[in-house]
Write a structure and sequence with these properties.
Chain A has 275 residues and is an alpha/beta fold. Chain A has eleven helices and ten strands. The longest helix of chain A has 14 residues. By secondary structure, chain B is an all-alpha fold. Chain B has a two-stranded antiparallel sheet with strand order 1-2. The chains are: A alpha/beta (275), B mainly alpha (326). The interface between A and B is medium-sized, with 28 and 21 residues.
């Protein structure tokens, strides 16, 4: 099966250059373990720049583990192990000389629950990544404005940048978190169910933001919401588990996956017959 | 259905109240009784101390707090009774502050190590050990201080004095470095460090995991995450732990009694071989006190009682203030 996956994923990058180096992320035969527990089996996918890829599948199929492998967050869990390669702009992020913190600057992450730093105001939240990574930046104000604009929040908060993040609504907080991860200028943004704690209006707002972000960078989004995957993603990857490690059923252009999937299980899942 | 104008008037409001069922009522009575008992006990202790010592405050007034003599009279009036606790009061604060200043960095560093740097196996062992250490009786620390630590304490004092002797705090009149507030403070610090560490670790471990993860996802080091998220989150808890430790240090009797030359003279030179605190004063004088002296000792106890109460109220308000804006 992984053969068909490979070819169908290859076709993703048709519109891109023919060079073998994918700008963005690429995984090759990724496996993951928690201790002895094999949770993810043989995943090969590409996430080129200027695309949105949705990761879909029922709970427990390893989507979140997979996404945390992409920026080396997996290793914070005691007993975590992996096999295979994750290539960022063509370089293996798991090779021994690589600094994990430097990788996380290029591969940003937005979490499920909006979580602005409580002790900081809006402006400080946006700039927190720059401070944490000790980046030298000349013009803080323009970064704050640019990141908040890209996250679609600038107009709403430009007159109260010194208010605490907690004073914003849930949807605004999540956009603040997106702005925060943009400040260190990643070229890949990982989003782990970013809208599952938000109301429908805020969700749409975030989806617009995601589409605008994809004009420049690669976005990988885990979602349980089929409509969201259909609305926001260019490509989709469907994960499944039969009780053992999670595996990839198929990956393809979203339109194809939703209308004419190659596997009946995909058809059943996207039509809501299980999961 | 037509709406007649009369029906549009606002109806009279009915007051709503929660009605407890039987089980809830019984349980509420039990917990209320529990809460009241400790309050009443506190009140009774305070009242008892005050009533038994009222005569002292009446006789001596403010001089009881500020004076620096503790002399039992001859009984026939030739040498009058002269009881006051000034040096003991400042000594209490001095020794406790030394202990707190020494133990805070140790406790915070230790808690961060156990929570964020120790391997899972080591973390389990250390957590248990810390809680055990917090429960060791102070007498054990006092004995350890006398038998083992004091010789080190003297050497450290000598060193501090030779380097920083120009500071008023580090001056000495006699070149004797044992049994000083510094030595007692060191032992008290080792006594209260486990408690503060234990409380701080507990608070640090409650830091929301996704906030820490967010720091890492922003390219932060572990220290960056600690500084940005863990310390601000744990601040009020650490202060709470420090106040618990301070409370123990303020009331510490045996360890100070064993480790300090109790001298009735105001002393703020921490390396000087004299000092004292209220609790050890009471322990020292209690056995052979006259009836009037006993009252003075109870009065000293009352002052200590008020002092710890004030410290706790201040601590509570600090904690309150630092958590409010979240």
């Amino acid at each position: 099966m992984s053969q068909t996956v490979q070819t169908s994923v290859m076709s993703m990058s048709d519109g891109q250059s023919e060079s073998p180096v994918v700008l963005g992320l690429e995984t090759r035969n990724i496996h993951a373990w928690f201790g002895k527990h094999h949770v993810l089996k043989d995943i090969s996918l590409k996430f080129p720049e200027k695309t949105v890829t949705g990761l879909i599948g029922p709970s427990g199929c390893g989507k979140s583990t997979f996404i945390r492998l992409l920026n080396r967050m997996h290793e914070f869990i005691p007993g975590a192990a992996m096999a295979g390669q994750v290539l960022h702009d063509g370089h293996d992020i798991y090779s021994p000389e690589v600094d994990a913190a430097a990788i996380r600057l290029k591969v940003g992450m937005v979490f499920q629950k909006p979580n602005p730093f409580p002790a900081m105001n809006i402006r400080e939240n946006v700039l927190s990544g720059i401070k944490l990574a000790h980046l030298k930046v000349a013009d803080h104000d323009s970064i704050v404005e640019r990141c908040l604009t890209r996250a679609g929040l600038w107009k709403e908060v430009k007159d109260r940048l010194t208010a605490t993040g907690g004073s914003l609504s849930g949807g605004q907080q999540q956009r603040l978190c997106i702005a925060r991860s943009l400040a260190v200028e990643p070229n890949v943004l990982l989003m782990d169910e970013p809208c599952s704690a938000l109301d429908p209006g805020s969700t749409l707002r975030i989806e617009e933001t995601i589409k605008e972000l994809a004009e420049k960078i690669a976005v990988v989004i885990v979602t349980h919401n089929m409509q969201q995957a259909a609305r926001v993603s260019d490509y989709c990857a469907f994960f499944l588990t039969d009780g053992g490690p999670g595996y990839l059923v198929e990956a393809d252009a979203t339109k194809k996956l939703f209308t004419n999937p190659g596997d009946t299980r995909t058809a059943d899942y996207v039509q809501g017959k299980f999961g | 259905m037509s709406i007649s104008p009369g029906l549009q008037a606002t109806p009279e409001a009915r007051e709503l109240s929660v009605i407890f069922n039987r089980a809830d009522r019984i349980f509420r009575r039990i917990v209320t009784a529990g809460a009241l008992t400790s309050l009443i006990l506190l009140g009774l202790i305070g009242t008892f101390l005050f009533v038994r010592s009222a005569q002292i405050f009446n006789d001596r007034g403010l001089k009881f707090i500020t004076g620096s003599n503790w002399t039992a009279g001859s009984g026939d009036g030739v040498i009058p009774d002269d009881f006051s606790i000034g040096p003991m009061l400042t000594g209490t604060l001095l020794v406790s502050l030394i202990a707190l200043v020494l133990s805070m960095p140790l406790a915070i560093g230790g808690a961060l190590f156990v929570e964020f740097y120790a391997t899972p196996g080591l973390k389990k062992v250390l957590t248990t050990l810390l809680d055990l250490a917090a429960a060791i009786p102070s007498l054990i620390f006092g004995l350890w201080g006398v038998v083992f630590f004091s010789s080190y304490g003297e050497r450290w004092s000598d060193l501090l004095n030779s380097r920083f002797g120009w500071l008023p705090l580090m001056k000495v009149q006699n070149e004797v470095f044992g049994r000083s507030p510094f030595v007692a403070g060191c032992v008290l610090a080792s006594l209260i460090t486990p408690i503060i560490t234990s409380v701080s670790r507990e608070v640090f471990s409650r830091t929301p995991r996704d906030l820490v993860d967010t720091c890492y996802a922003l390219g932060s080091t572990r220290w960056g995450a600690i500084k940005t998220v863990v310390l601000p989150f744990g601040k009020s808890g650490v202060i709470g732990g420090a106040m618990l430790g301070l409370g123990r240090a303020l009331g510490e009797t045996v360890a100070v009694y064993l480790l300090l030359n109790i001298v009735f003279r105001y002393n703020f030179r921490i390396l000087e071989s004299e000092g004292g605190n209220i609790a050890s004063l009471i322990a020292l004088k209690f056995g052979e006190a006259t009836e009037y002296e006993l009252k003075a000792l109870v009065a000293a106890g009352f002052v200590l009682f008020l002092l710890t109460l004030v410290v706790n109220i201040v601590a509570a308000s600090i904690v309150e203030r630092s958590t409010r804006h979240r």
